[in-house]
Amino acid sequence: MKDFNFRLKHHLAEKQAIARECLKLVRDGDLIGTDASTSVLTLCKMLPTEYKLTLVTLSQVLPIVMENHSNATIVSTGGISLKGHASYVGSIALSTLSAFHFDKSFLSTSAFDPALGLCDYSEELSNKSKLIEQSNETYLLCDSSKFEKKSLHYLFIPANITAIITDWKISQEQLDNLRRHNYHVIVAPEL
Fold first, then answer.
1. Which of 12, 30, 58, 188 has the highest CB neighbour count under 10 A?
2. Is 70 exceeded by the pLDDT of residue 3?
């Protein structure tokens, strides 16, 4: 997996399109859980400043990025710093996530297989699982390049994903495959 700074610039147009679709799902007053992905960071940079939101995040970067969002309360989980990912993992992060029940959670993945689920480094999968468990709605931000990748570590959670939000570059075959596995898919148009 590429380091955080590389991923921040990679597939940027796709991430921005996905973030614009996600904005339609955010409501004033929401309590939102987030992972530390660059896709989620792109979304959070676009959040309306007039919304009073509470964000609980596994990201080390998000609290800094949201510093000027005067109506947002940002809660950092803390935990063990996962090198190269700007993410917190471990029991402290899990304990913090367990203290909340989210209206929505937004997370991403390094790869996605419709039959196997999310994949990521094993340390991050337990955090993502807890985010999903503690949320009324879970949105997976997944640019189209992630549907062709494989991994050693998977988290099977299809029934708990409200929707997969992807970009216009997804192939019809990939889209059909996701729908065959009963995923609700939102395709973000090109900007």
1. 58
2. no
Give the DSSP H or E segment for 39.
Answer: helix 38-45
- Kindly provide the residue ranges of all beta strands, DSSP E only, lying in 4-157, ordered along the sequence: 31-34, 53-57, 72-76, 80-82, 87-89, 102-108, 111-113, 117-119, 135-141, 154-155
Which tokens belong to 76? 């950092």
Distance of alpha carbon 119 from alpha carbon 175, whole angstroms: 18
Q: Tell me the average pLDDT across 148-167.
A: 77
Answer for the pair 183, 161: CB distance below 8 angstroms, yes or no. yes
- Is the pTM higher than 0.70? yes
Q: What token pair was written down for 132?
A: 């999903």
Mean confidence (pLDDT) of the chain: 89
DSSP lists the bridge partners of residue 34 as: 57, 106
**Pairing mode, if any, of strands 80-82 and 87-89?**
antiparallel
